[in-house]
Amino acid sequence: MYGRKYLTVFLTMFMLLAVSGYAFAAGFKDVNNHWAEGQINKWAENGLAGGYADGTFKPNQQVSRAEFVALTNRAFHIDKKEAAVSFSDVKSSDWYASEVAAAKAAGYIGGYADGTFKPNNPITRQEVASILVRLLDIETTTEGLSVFADTAQISEWSRGNVGAVVKTGLMRGMPDNKFMPLKSITRAEAVVSLDRALEYVPGVTKPVEPKPLLETGLEGTVTYNGQPVKNAAVNIFKANSYEVLKEIETDSEGNFKIKLEPGKYDITAVTDWEVSFNNDITIVEQKMTRVDLLLTKAAVLSGELLDDNNRPVKKTTMYFTTNPTFVTVTDNDGKFKVPVYPNKTYKVRATDPDNKDEKPVVVKDKLEVKGVGNHNVGDIKASFDGEVIKIGGDGSGGVSGGDSNDQKEPKLKVNSVTFVVDDRQETVSGVNNVFTVDLTGYNDTDMFTELTVRATQNATRASITIMGETREINFNQGVASTTVKNLLGPLDTGEPGISLQSLRTLLKVANDIKITIYGENKDKETVEVEIILPAQK
């Protein structure tokens, strides 16, 4: 269609996405070693791609359906003069109304069965494949789809389109041999796909460009019903192990990224009501392995962990294993709640609170779990003595054994500190109230944007001091989070956070951040967060 018409025409665009128009100077600071670095910089040098005022391009940020249509119209000079809006959710006053109408009139997009276009939804890879095929009038084919491990996830309506763009080299699979049809396309992918579309010649397959090596680790996206899920808990295990090696949460776009040593790993992702799992993942040197997790409805188990004297065991970790393993922690009353896969049999382990350095103890050898939904499994009996818990509210009732001093609230404690740098989470547990955050794998230009402190449930507030500037944040059920922008106060530069290079300058006198937490009973605990920064170049 339009591919042949404009095949030999020199195409220009005022800008790639609806960004601030920040000019390209010495390169975007967040695309170094990115797989699309070459195309992004080429477009920027030619004035076809813009960035942000902080010198970034944000290559991994999602693109909406309306934004991608606008890009395509500009690239292929689609006429918008007489096109009329025909979708119920696109108003004539919307900035994208003429773009969507023109794309519909040109015949390279369609809407949904309910008459909507969903302009603000992130556009998926299979939807982009459909646009490119219609735009360039490429013959559809399903040949070659079997090479992808996730071929079953490609929607029936898009299978011929995906096969066509793969055959012509307009789109590629992922390093883990998946196409990821439901994944939202990123700004980097938008640049690359349109760049290839502009250079497309019928019958010629564009060769695969070599990709620079990446850091070693694991990344992916957690989705439910095709939509990204933020704040999903992602646990990393050594392969065939039940103890958590690392834990992180997905960001606002459902993405996660974590550095790992080469080896084999298992991974789970959970929300309050959904679960997902992938096992025996191989991590190799200098490569980010991609694993996407699709959540399904869970069986949510609840019950109470009792010691051998029938006393509730509080604040202890429990492991529900059938490969995968799902992990939870009992509350102050010994009660637990954990989402797991339905219709499986689990072995349940628990950590002895008096011997936390020992391996967890099997407390139930076989726990049969039925279908999805809530399941109260009752009491689970441990073979060890738990800590004494005060059940009554006035001191007159509850568990006997020990005086009132044995029934105090748990000791105030900081359990972990999480840094968000370059949209990635680094979570560390402390030793003797010192939390060491190793950021040597990052660049000086990477931005430190958020800080989260996890403490015992009786924590009420925290004061955080950086170079004499103190800010207070409140705890909610043992968790306190703040943006670095808020912490900086008068030191704020207007950026979303602070670069690691600037952080080094601030911390020349002392390489730590002091955090003091306060409890319900005027308890106070101070910890130090030591930061290991990238070596100066």
UniProtKB/TrEMBL annotation:
PROSITE patterns: SLH
Protease recorded as keyword: yes
All copies of domain SLH, residue ranges: 23-82, 83-146, 148-208
GO molecular function: carboxypeptidase activity
SUPFAM superfamilies associated with the record: Carboxypeptidase regulatory domain-like
Name of the protein in question: Carboxypeptidase family protein
Keywords: Carboxypeptidase, Hydrolase, Protease, Repeat, Signal
Keyword Signal: yes
Range of residues in the leader sequence: 1-25
PANTHER family: OUTER MEMBRANE PROTEIN ALPHA-RELATED, S-LAYER PROTEIN _ PEPTIDOGLYCAN ENDO-BETA-N-ACETYLGLUCOSAMINIDASE
Classification via Pfam families: CarboxypepD_reg, SLH
Organism listed in the record: Desulfallas thermosapovorans DSM 6562
